[in-house]
TrEMBL record:
InterPro entries, A to Z: DUF4276
Protein name stated in the entry: DUF4276 family protein
Origin species: Acidithiobacillus sulfuriphilus
């Protein structure tokens, strides 16, 4: 049984979100979030961090690396993460295969964290009641991972129109407020579901 999950994230708003989400997904399993300064900082330092863990990582611990896709090619980014894990001597979930023990799972938020909020619009409504309930049915918003032009910018526009964050979206505040309302089993974002699947697989080790 998994004793501890270590999660690498690239920025503070993802850290704030996971602080509320992971307890809903992991029951009593311990977790630790390691935040980097940005995506480039995470990718730059990840090889050394994973090499360090490879020398002592207990069998009942696992690592989850979570990055935003942004404008990157998803396949290339995933291959980069897989290569870093392999060169560090750690077995990834992808290489281990379904149902087998692994040490590292690599997951990508498409295109960024705020897509997960669009995937659970009921949570956004609970946090900010003036936003329209019909957003997920509108063209351009039906696929949370396929929203064009930046998901945080889209969320900011909707919240501003509802008279929230008139001077600009405060991402940390928004992340904490929405994450408290999120219910993982109703989220329609495929990248969120892949993240939840990785957490579930880790806790089953």
């Amino acid at each position: 049984m998994l004793e501890k999950l270590i999660v690498f994230v690239e920025e503070p708003s993802m850290e704030a979100t996971l602080e509320h989400l992971l307890p809903k997904l992991m029951n009593d399993v311990d977790f630790e979030i390691r935040r980097f300064q940005c995506k480039d900082d995470l990718l730059k330092n990840l090889p050394a961090r994973l090499r360090g863990y490879s020398t002592w990582l207990p069998e009942n611990w696992a690592i989850l690396v979570l990055v935003d896709r942004d404008d990157d090619d998803c396949t290339v980014l995933k291959q980069t993460l897989e290569g870093i894990a392999a060169r560090a001597g750690l077995l990834s979930k992808s290489r281990a295969g379904n149902g087998n023990r692994f040490q590292v799972a690599n997951r990508i938020a498409i295109e960024e964290l705020e897509a997960w909020f669009f995937g659970d619009w009921a949570a956004v409504q609970a946090a900010y009641p003036r936003v329209p309930s019909t957003i997920p049915q509108k063209t351009g918003y039906r696929d949370p991972d396929g929203i064009l032009g930046g998901t945080w910018e889209a969320l900011e526009r909707i919240l501003k129109r509802a008279s929230y964050f008139k001077t600009g979206l405060r991402k940390m505040e928004c992340a904490r407020t929405v994450a408290q309302q999120m219910e993982p089993n109703r989220n329609t974002s495929q990248s969120f579901r892949a993240f939840v699947g990785a957490v579930s697989a880790a806790t089953s080790l």
